[in-house]
Design brief:
Elements: E1 2-8, H1 13-19, E2 37-43, H2 49-58, H3 62-74, H4 79-92, H5 96-110, H6 114-127, H7 130-143, H8 148-164
Antiparallel strand pairs: 1-2
Helix pairs in contact: 2-3, 2-4, 3-4, 4-5, 4-6, 5-6, 6-7, 6-8, 7-8
Amino acid sequence: MSAIIVHHSTVTTCALVLLSGCVSTGLEPFNQLQPTEVREVTVDPSLEPLRHAEQMLRKQAYNQAIAYYLAALQSEQTQPDALLGLASSYSLMGQFANADIYFNNYKTLKGPDSAYHNDLGFSLMLRGELAAARATLEQAIAQAPDSPTITNNLRALKMLEADMRPQS
């Protein structure tokens, strides 16, 4: 087994709502992520790292997801999926510099496809960069017009934009 040091943080309720694909009213600004703490995660190399990474991401166990995605990269197991998973996990932890590294690596390897634009658009929402998020998610929906995930992210962005407008 190998130990990988990763970062862990708590994300806002708003980010969790969007990750789950749900939409609700009363969205808070996304850029209110808590400070991170360092945690060590041990990865069993005999497991299928990519599958376990995806499970950990769904369970919102971002530090474990990152550890398994990194293990998947080391085993060269479906590299593009691992790169995008790392970018998403780091975004959800507020580690945007790390997220950008993996977004760029994915884009270099696979190009700016709908998955890239969707996940980057969501990351931009987390950063509070709503105009850039809208432009990026519109590119995603143009590439995959029937995607329920992208549609849900656009709906959530619209609600967030409405919540962020000054009240008169």
